[in-house]
Each structure stands twice: as C-alpha cells, then as structure tokens.
Write a structure and sequence with these properties.
The complex is a heterodimer. Chain A is an all-alpha fold. Chain A has eleven helices and no strands. In chain A, α3 runs parallel beside α6, α3 packs antiparallel against α8 and α7 packs antiparallel against α8. The termini of chain A are far apart. Helix content of chain B is about 75%, strand content about 0%. Chain B contains 14 helices and two strands; from the N terminus they run ααββαααααααααααα. Classes of the chains: A mainly alpha, B mainly alpha.
C-alpha cells in the first residue's frame, strides 16, 4: 500500500501543477511593470488602470455580461423542460430524435454550430425579415441553443436521482401536475438549476467561435475583442482581465459552496425533525 | 371550461413542444440549410451564393444541385491534408489526455472519500475560468522568451531558446490542457463506483497489486475511457482557437480552414461543404457516444 499511495500523491501533485501553473502565471504577470509579459520589471498595477480606461474592452464586457445573463435564464427554462421530458415523460413519438437533439450540441464542433446558425439567420431574414441584421438577439439565440444542452443533462441526471415517490404522493393527494412541479420538484432540483444557470452563463461568456459567426458588425463580445488582441501577441492588460475573472470565479465558487453546504445542513435538519416527529407520533399511537 | 380544455393542447404536449421546437428550428433546420448551400455555387452578392430552388414559369421547382464544391474538396489536396492533420492531432491529444487523466482520476477515486469532492472540484475549477484566457496563458509560457525557455536558459541547460510556440507540440499541450476535465470526469465516475471487493478477492487469491490492476480495474474502466476519449476527440477535431493561437500559422486544421473559407475568402458554399464533410467524419463517433450514454443511463436506472 505504501508504494501505491506514493504514486497517488505524485500524480495528483503533477496533475494539479499542470492545471494551475498557467493560471498562476497569468496572475503573477498581470502585476508586472514591464510590457514584455515574461520579463519581470517590478510590481505595478498600471495594467489594471489601462484596462479600466479601455473603452472597447469595457463595452464588449458589458455586452457579454448581458448576453450571458439572458442566455443562462432562457437556457435554464428550456433545459429544465427538456430534462423533465426526458426523465419523466417516458416513451413518446419522436423521443429518439429529441434525445439526439439534446445531446448533439454538447459535442458538435463550434465552427459547425456557428456556421449553420448564421446561415439560418440569413435565410430567415430573406424569408420573413426577422431577425433584422445580426447582433445581441442572434448571439443570444445561438448561445441558448448550445448551452441548454448542458442544462438538460444536469437537470435530467438530478431528476433521475430524485425520489419519485414524493411527486407520486402529491399527485395521489390530488395536486395538479403543475402544482406538483412548482411545490415539490422545483425546490428539490433547485441546486441543479443553479449550477445549470452558472454553467450556461460561463459558456456564453466564454464563447468565441459561435459568437464570431452570428455577431454583426458593432456587436463584438468580450472573447472576440480578446482574441483579436491576443492574436497579435501577449498584452499585459489581458493578464489583468484574466486575474479579475479568476478572482470573480473563485469568489463565486466559494459563495456557491457555502450556500450548498448550508442548504444541505438545513435539509438534513428538516429530515431529522420529520423523523423525530414521526417517532413521537408512533409512540403516542402506541400509548393510545 | 371543459370545451376549452379539449381545444387546448395538454400540459404534457406544451412542455414537450417548447424545447422540441426550439431545437428543431435552431439546431436541425440550420443543418438542412448548410446541406442545401453546400450544393450551391458562390456568387458575389449578399448572401454570397446562388439560390438552389428556381421557380419556373409553370410553377415547377427546378432543383439545381451543384456537386462542384464537393469535387473541389476531393480534388484539392489542401482539404485532405487538413482533415488528416485534424484527425491525427485530435487522436494524439486524446491518447495524451488519457495517459495523463487516468492516473489523476484513479488517484482521486481511491483517495479518502471525504476528500474526493474537493479534489474533483479542483479539477473542474479551471474550466470555469475563460477557455480563451487559459489558452492565452500558454503563449506566455511557451514562447521563445517565455517562462520555460527563460528558466532553462537561467539554469544553463540550453543556450538557445527552443522553439515551442507555433509547433504541433504547443497544440497538443493546448488541447490536453483544455480538455483534461472532460477525460477525468467520466473516468472518475466509472472508477469511483467500482466494486473494490473484486480487488480484495484477487489479492487474496495471490494476485499482485499491479496484476490486479491490469486484469480487473483496467478492463472494468473501459466504458469510462471510451466516454472520456470521445468527449475529447470529437471537439478536438473541429478545434479552432487552440491551433489559431498556439499552432504554426501554416498548420492546416479543418476548423481553421472552415474559418478562413468563411471569413477571409467569403466562399460560403465551400465553407458549408467543409462543414458537411467534417460532420460525416464525426457522425459515427457522435452516435457511438450517444449510445454509450443511453446505456449508462439505463444501467444507472437499474441500480
């Protein structure tokens, strides 16, 4: 066993070093005074100042954040419906096609998704005059289409784990299906919806290829601006942007972690109380 | 109220049809259009292709199928090379991902249960930061006056910087780095639920630990390996960002070729034909992945 635990520790250390050293290097060099990103020229925060003054980046970031928030919200609604259909509705006509359509966007190369959506938008504009030109709306539609697949997978697997007897009990007691969904199912799968929302938000904020195809002139998202800058070589203000992003993600994950632990504890407590109440009732029944 | 309910579709139909219609309109129909345009000829117009359907005077639709785009793809060596390069690069990266990801997934699955979740969280955490920026980080590490070359030269191991950026090596690193979580997640899920008493039984019967690993753990983890490999291979074939930022500018990967045809040459029909051909390459692995996932779901439901 000694030899094997040594192997485990080494492979974990090497693995995590591989994953985290590049991110750490981005952060360290964002505080570098020198413009040559990899030559250390002393500590400085001037690139942050330059970033805040860069209007092109700020505009793109604002557009990307709005697109990501709207995308994530629509994707969670559609993905939850699709997950319900796949996990609860059993076989129906066209189910195979439906399940194929929900998994294919997960692995479809982005260049294909981007190209095909752009051609759809162009065709639709010719046929019915909508969408007029391309911009925020077309980016949102494209992002919803590929990110709802991820939400569907998360919701579906959460529903598969969930104890169906709770829903069945509510239905037996006369609750309407939609009431069961909103009062029983939704609260139980809420953490899955939250992580689905965050995932869709991140995917949308991160997407370069699909947005490049479906965005019109004048609607550059943040990754598009970063890409055109980075293509010409390293630039320290991008390092500053990366650092801000990493810190934001770390804070977000920490908050989500604390929230989920707290919720889990509350649920455990509720379950214990229910159990205790049940026990009391049995005792009193026995006495009676 | 009763007559109203008869006319309105049932709740079930509504719930099914909303996401269904969305996916049909924004995922399936676009492919039909791509297929259609791949059979069209390029024109200097907006949109830059000739219409496929012509309404004749007697209201008969004449369909013009133009196979020249596909003939062009077949005859031009560039496209064959691009497809072969993409598949080769994706294959090597997938194997590297498996070789690096397996020990990590194995180590996490066999570590203390209380630590597993936090370790897996650390594996997926980089995935939450921007993919583009993580690829960008490697430019600073790999370039001629980057971290690795500077460190090696400071240690006196080399006098001249080694050219690493703009090589195949850099593309492998970029793909492995970006897609490693996709390999580790299914492998971990598989290794974690494995029945460890099998290993105990093997060791009781005199198997050495590494023999038990080769004869029991490895064969049982094949489904996880297949799922992980497909999740890395399929997107890697069409990858655009990584070869564009880390690879040789002259390197032909199919995602890049499609991008150039579309944005630089503005040849939409050829770009569509490239997309259709790429899809034909990927249809089998995608279908296989879908089947593997359905099987895993069924097994999960049975347990």
């Amino acid at each position: 066993m000694q030899g094997r635990s040594w192997f485990r520790i080494v492979s974990l250390i090497v693995g995590f070093a591989f994953l985290y050293i590049p991110i750490a290097s981005l952060i360290v060099y964002s505080f570098n005074a020198s413009k040559l990103v990899t030559v250390w020229g002393g500590f400085s925060t001037k690139w942050y100042g330059e970033l805040i003054r860069n209007e092109q980046i700020l505009n793109a970031a604002w557009l990307s954040l709005r697109v990501a928030a709207i995308t994530a919200t629509i994707a969670v609604i559609l993905g939850t419906l699709a997950g319900m259909v796949l996990a609860r509705f059993g076989p129906f006509k066209g189910r195979t096609l439906f399940s194929g359509l929900t998994t294919a966007p997960l692995v479809m190369p982005e260049v294909i998704t981007g190209l095909s959506l752009l051609l759809l938008f162009v065709t639709l504009e010719q046929l019915i005059g909508w969408p007029q030109g391309r911009g925020m709306t077309t980016i949102i539609i494209a992002h919803v289409t590929f990110s709802m697949a991820f939400v569907t997978v998360i919701v579906q697997s959460r529903l598969a784990q969930m104890d169906e007897s709770l829903e069945e009990a509510a239905l037996d007691l006369g609750a309407r299906p939609w009431k069961v969904f909103f009062l029983i199912t939704l609260p139980i799968i809420f953490p899955a919806l939250l992580s689905g929302w965050l995932l869709a938000f991140t995917l949308s904020l991160d997407d370069l290829v699909i947005a490049s195809f479906v965005a019109g002139p004048g609607s550059s998202t943040l990754p598009m601006v970063i890409f055109s800058k980075v293509r010409l070589g390293v630039s320290p203000d991008i390092n500053a942007l990366a650092t801000i992003l990493v810190v934001a993600v770390a804070i977000g994950v920490a908050i989500a972690g604390v929230m989920m632990t707290r919720q889990q504890k509350a649920r455990d407590r509720d379950a214990q109380m229910a159990l205790a109440a049940n026990q009391q009732m049995i005792e009193s029944l026995k006495k009676g | 109220m009763k007559w109203l309910r008869r006319w309105l579709p049932s709740g079930r139909t509504v719930v099914t049809s909303v996401p269904y219609l969305w996916l049909l309109l924004f995922f399936l129909v676009p492919f039909v259009i791509v297929l259609k345009i791949s059979f069209s000829t390029a024109q200097i117009a907006m949109p830059p292709y000739a219409p496929l359907l012509h309404w004749m005077s007697d209201k008969v639709v004449q369909v013009q199928l133009d196979f020249s785009n596909f003939l062009f793809l077949i005859q031009d060596n560039l496209y064959w090379k691009a497809y072969l390069t993409s598949i080769g690069i994706a294959f090597v990266s997938t194997v590297l991902c498996l070789l690096i990801g397996y020990p990590i997934a194995y180590s996490i699955a066999r570590s203390d249960p209380s630590r597993r979740n936090i370790l897996m969280l650390m594996i997926v955490l980089p995935f939450w930061t921007s993919f583009l920026l993580r690829v960008y980080a490697w430019i600073g590490i790999l370039k001629n006056n980057g971290l690795i070359n500077n460190a090696l030269m400071a240690l006196g191991i080399i006098d001249q910087p080694i050219q690493m950026l703009q090589t195949d090596f850099a593309v492998y690193i970029g793909i492995v780095y970006s897609y490693l979580p996709f390999m580790i997640l299914p492998l971990y899920a598989n290794l974690e639920k494995m029945d460890l008493t099998l290993l105990e039984a093997a060791e009781d019967l005199g198997c050495r630990p590494w023999e038990a690993f080769l004869k029991i753990t490895l064969p049982l983890s094949v489904p996880g390996m297949i799922a992980g490999c497909l999740l890395v291979f399929i997107p890697a074939v069409g990858e655009f960002v990584i070869p564009a930022l880390l690879g040789d500018p002259g390197m032909l990967m199919i995602g890049k070729v499609l991008w150039t045809e579309f944005f630089n040459n503005r040849d939409w029909p050829v770009a569509s034909a490239v997309a259709i051909a790429l899809l034909l390459f990927l249809v089998l692995p995608i279908m296989y992945l879908d089947r593997a996932q359905n099987r895993a779901d069924e097994e999960g439901e049975r347990n």
